[in-house]
Amino acid sequence: MTNQARIRNFSIIAHIDHGKSTLADRLLELTGAVDARDMREQVLDTMDLERERGITIKAQTVRLTHRAEDGEEFVLNLIDTPGHVDFSYEVSRSLAACEGALLLVDAAQGVQAQTLANAYLAVEAGLEVIPVINKIDLIAADPDRVATEITNVIGGSAEEVVRISAKTGEGVDALLRRVVDLIPPPSGDPQSPLRALVFDSYYDAYRGVVCYVRVVDGRLRSGFKLEFMATGETHDAAEVGVLTPAAKPVNVLEAGEVGYLITGVKEIDRIKVGDTLTDAASPALQALAGYAEPKPMVFSGLFPTDGDDFERLREALEKLRLNDGSLMWEPETSRALGFGFRVGFLGLLHMEIVRERLEREYDLDLVATAPSVAYRVTMTDGSIREIKSPQDLPDPGSRGDISEPYVRAMILTPSDYVGPIMELVTAKRGEMGNMSYLSPERVELDYRIPLSEIVFDFFDLLKSRTKGYASLDYEPDEYRTADLVKVDILLNGQPVDAFSAIVHRDKANDYGTKMTGRLRGLIPRQMFDVPIQAAIGGRVISRETVKAKRKDVIAKCYGGDVTRKKKLLTKQKEGKKRMKMVGSVEVPQEAFVAALRVDDDL
Amino acid sequence: MMTSDVRHLSGAEVDRHVEDAAAYVHIPFCSAVCPYCDFAVVAGADDRIGRYVDAVLAEIAMSPRWRPLDSVYFGGGTPSHVDPAHLRRILDALASHHGLANGSEVTVEANPEDFGPQRASELFSAGFNRVSFGAQSFDDAVLARLGRRHDAGDIEVSLANARSAGFQNASMDLIFGTPVERNESWMATLRRAVALEPDHISCYALTVEPGTPLHRDVKAGAPAPDPDTQADRYEMAERILGEAGLGRYEVSNWSRPGRECRYNLTVWAQGEYEAYGNGAHRFVDGVRSHNIRRMDAYIDRIEQGVRPISGSELVRGWDGEIDRLFVGLRRSAGVRPGPGVDALLGTRGGGVLRHAGVIDVLEGRLVVTRPLLTDEVHRQVLDLSPPQGWVEALERDNLSD
C-alpha cells in the first residue's frame, strides 16, 4: 500500500523517433527496474513491428521506484501511450489515467503535428505538462529554437524546458526531480466506492484478457466481484498486480495506483477500453467520464490471393482481434477477387500495420482494395444508410444526397512551404481555417478536409511537397454533402468491383483516365481486344484497349520432341492459374495490387 | 487470317498416318553452332564422327526388329556435314534391320554450303530421296545475324544441284522475324524461295531459346524478335506461298499437294517412330522416350552395351487422348472427334477459345483456326480432366525421367 502523496502517474507524449522509448529505457535503468545487464534496447516496445518502425502500437505501463534526494521513495507509474494519430482514443484513455505528461520533442526536428495534438489532449485533460527537449547531443540540435516553439504552443518560459539526452542519460536525473516536484499526486478518495479506469487491455494466450487499470477511488482487491459499468458485465478479479515491468501480483491496488487486472475473460471485445470498474457489492453511482466506442474511419477489402486461404484469413483476423478490440470486419464478396472481408480501421497507419501483420505473422498473401471512408446516403424514403464500400452504393434512382466525413486537419510546417500546402489543400477540396506562427519559421495550419482525400494520397503528397518537413494530424469533424459519383471500371464490358471508387464529380475524369491507363499497362494481351473503360452509370468517361495478341506458338516441334514442349506449356499453364478471371479476361494478381497502389501519379 | 486456295489434306488423309512406321536419326555434327540453336549439336568434333556412327549402328542393332519403315528422317545438327558414306551405312542398317516400305520417304537435312554436285549425287545414290535445306533467308544481312555460313546464292546453287542429282522432293527451312529483317526483305526471301519451285517450305519464327548465345545477347539488351512483327511476316508467308501453290498443312509447314513431309505427318497423327542418336526422341508402344542428350555420354552408354534412354513418358488412356490432340492440332486438318475434343469444348476455357475464333469445329473435326495462337489451345488441352466415369484402360505407372 502506497500513500497517494508518494505516487506520480505520468505519460510521455512524443512524435515517432523523438526518443520516447529510449527515455523510458533510461528511466527503467535509473530507477533500477531493469538491471543494466538485462537492458534490451526499448524494453517497452515488445512487438516486432513496434521495434522495427520505432512506434508504439499498444500502450504499456511500468511501475518504477524512485528514491528522492531526501531518501523518500516515490512510486512512478509510467504509462506509455501510442504515438500515432490513429490511436488517439487510446492516447486519451492513457492520459486520463495520469496527472502529468512529459512533452518530449526532438532538439533538431522540433514540434510535430501529432505531438501537438496529443499535447493539447493532455492540456485539455488538465494534466501537468512538462516540456522536455531530447537529443541535445545531436550536432543538428537547436534546443533554443525548439524551446521557443514549445512555449509558443503550451505557454510557460523557455527556461522551464528540460533539456536531456535520453541516449547518453544527460539531464535524466534532473527530469526525475521535476516529475516528483511538478506532477501532482493522485487525489482520489480511498474511502469511496471503487472506481477504476480500464485504460488498455491485451490478450495473453495463457491468462486471457489482461486489463491495465488506474484506480481512481476506493480500492481494487483481488477476489472482488467487479462490475464493468459501460458493458454491464460482472467478472471476478482473479488477480491484480503491478508491472515492475514483470507482472507481480498484489492483494490490493489502492486509490491512485496503476496496475493490471485478470478476470479470466477470454474475448477481448467483452472488455472495453475506457470502461469504469466498480465493486459489484457496493457500486459507484457514476462512471468515470470519457468512455467511447472506438470507431473505424477507414475501410478496405482484404482478399487472399489464393482463394483457399479465406478461412486462414478469418482465423488470422480473429487472432489479431484478441489484441486489438478496435479491429472490425464483415465478409465481402467481390466478383473479381472472390471471398474476403471489408475491414474497418482507425486510420491509415492502423490499416497498414494490420495488413503487414496478417502477411508477416500469418503468412498470407493479400490483395487490398483502395481504402474508402464511410459515406452517408440519404435514401429517397428519407432513411439514411452508411456505405463503407463503393459496391454498396445504392442506385442513383433510390438515393438522394451523399455526404462524406470531413476531418479537422492540423498541419505543422516550416513557413517556406505554406504556399505549396495551400495549393494542395485546395486541390483536395480543403477549407482553410486558422494559421498561426509557432515561431517565425514554423506555422500551424488548420483545415477542414474530406477524409476520403486524406485516405487517398494526401499524406504522401504533403510529404513530397514539403520535402518531408510538414507533419499532419487530424480528428473527425462533421459530415458534409458533396457531389459524389461512383466511377466503375469495366474490363471487356464487365465492371470490376474491386476497382470501383466513390469520388467527387470533379475528380472522376482523373480517376478514370489514370485507372484505365494503368490497367492497360498491367493486363497482358489476350486472344481478343480487351476494352478498358471508366464509366459513371452508363456513361463512359475514358477508354483504353489492350490489343489482342497475335502470336503465341512455339515455332518448331523438333524431331518429335513432344514431351519437352508439353512440359513447357504445362509450366506456363501453372503460371496462368495464378491469374484471376474477370469474365473471359485473365488478370494477373499483380495487376490488382499495382492498380490499387496509391501513389503520386494518381 | 489469310487462307490459301491450295487444297488441304483431308482429315482421313492425315489421320491414316497413325498406321505408319517411321524412324529418326540424329546427326549432331556441325561446322559451327548457330547462335539461336538449342538442339543437341556439336561443332569441332569431326574426329569422333566414325565412333558416333558406330554407336548409332550398335543402337539400331540393339533395338527390337520392327516393320518396314514408311519414312526415315536424318536430322541434326547437319547430316550433310558428314561423309555420305557414313549416312549410307546407317540407312543400310535401318533397311536390313527393319526394312524400308515401298515408296518410303527418306529425308536428309542439308546446309547449302555443303551441297556441291558430288555430295548431292552421293546422298541420292545412298538412298535419300528427299532433301531439306537449312536456307533460313535470302537476305545476307539476316543470314549473317543468324550466324549462317552460306549466302543467298548458295541456296540457289544447292537446290539446282539437288535437282540435277535426281532429288524430286526438295524442301527448305526459312526463319522470319530476325530483328535485322524488314518486311521488304522477308517478302523478297519468300519470292526468291518460291521462284526455285521447292516442293515444301517450312517457315519458323525466330525463337529465343534459353541457354543460347542469342538468349544471352537479348538479356544483355540486344533487340528481341517482336511477336507482332512475326505475326505480320507469318501472314505474308501465308499469302505468298499460297499464291505459289504451296498449301499450309501444319502451323509452320507448307507444301505442294502430295509433297507433305510424311515423317512429320506420322508424328502429328500420333503414329509410331523409332529414333537413334543422341537426344533423339521416339514414340513406340505408347511410350514417348528420349536418348541421352550429350554425344559423349551417349557413345559411352552404347559402348557399354546399354540402350541410351534417359527419360520416358507413358502416353496411354486419357494421357494418350490428350497427346493425340496435342500433336494433331498443329495440323490444318485438326483432329477427329473424341472424348478429348468433347472435354475441351465443354470447358469454359474451350468456350473462350472458340468465342475468340481460335478453334472451331469444321466438317466434324476440331481445328485451330488461328494457328499463331496454337499454344493457347495447347495449354488448355493439357489442363483437361477426363469426363466423369472415364475408366483408364490400362494401369498407369510412372516410368523414369
Question: Considering the protein shown, what is the CATH homologous superfamily of the largest domain in chain B?
Answer: Aldolase class I
- Taking Cα atoms only, what radius of gyration of chain B do you get, to the nearest Å? 21 Å
**Can you summarize the main beta sheet of chain B?**
9 strands, mixed
CATH topology of the largest domain in chain A: Rossmann fold
Shape-level CATH architecture of the largest domain in chain A: 3-Layer(aba) Sandwich
According to CATH, what is the class of the largest domain in chain A? Answer: Alpha Beta
Number of domains of chain B: 2
Average pLDDT of chain B works out at 93
Shape of chain A: globular
Largest pleated sheet of chain A: 8 strands, antiparallel
In terms of DSSP E residues, the strand content of chain A is 25-35%
Q: Low-confidence stretches of chain B at least 5 residues in length (pLDDT < 50)?
A: 394-401
CATH topology of the largest domain in chain B: TIM Barrel
Detailed description of the structure:
- The complex is a heterodimer of chains A (602) and B (401).
- Chain A has 602 residues and is an alpha+beta fold.
- Chain A contains 13 helices and 33 strands.
- Chain A has five domains: 4-182, Rossmann fold, CATH 3.40.50.300; 195-279, Elongation Factor Tu (Ef-tu), domain 3; 298-369, Elongation Factor G (Translational Gtpase), domain 3 (Alpha-Beta Plaits); 376-482, Alpha-Beta Plaits; 485-596, Alpha-Beta Plaits.
- Helix content of chain A is 26%, strand content 34%.
- In chain A, the strands form seven sheets. In chain A, strands 11-10-16-7-8-15-12-13 form an eight-stranded antiparallel β-sheet. Chain A has a six-stranded mixed β-sheet with strand order 2-3-1-4-5-6, with helices on both faces.
- In chain A, strand 4, helix 4 (113-124) and strand 5 form a beta-alpha-beta unit.
- Chain A starts with 6 loop residues before the first strand and ends in a 6-residue tail after the last helix.
- The model of chain A is unreliable at 53-59 (pLDDT under 50).
- In chain B, the strands form four sheets. Chain B has a nine-stranded mixed β-sheet with strand order 9-10-8-7-6-5-4-1-11, with helices on both faces. Chain B has a three-stranded antiparallel β-sheet with strand order 12-13-14, with no helix packed on it.
- Chain B folds into two domains: 11-268, Alpha-Beta Barrel (TIM Barrel), CATH 3.20.20; 320-382, no CATH class.
- In chain B, helix 3 (84-97) runs parallel beside helix 4, helix 4 (117-126) packs across helix 6 (152-165) and helix 7 packs parallel to helix 9.
- In chain B, strand 7 (169-176), helix 7 (183-195) and strand 8 (200-205) form a beta-alpha-beta unit.
- The longest helix of chain B has 17 residues, at 227-243.
- Chain B contains 15 helices and 16 strands.
- Chain B has helices at 11-15, 49-62, 84-97, 117-126, 140-145, 152-165, 183-195, 213-219, 227-243, 262-268, 295-303, 317-328, 339-346, 348-355, 374-382, and strands spanning 21-27, 29-30, 42-43, 69-76, 100-110, 130-136, 169-176, 200-205, 247-250, 253-255, 272-276, 281-284, 287-291, 309-314, 359-362, 365-368.
- At the A-B interface, helix 12 of A face helix 9, strand 12, helix 12, helix 14 and helix 15 of B.
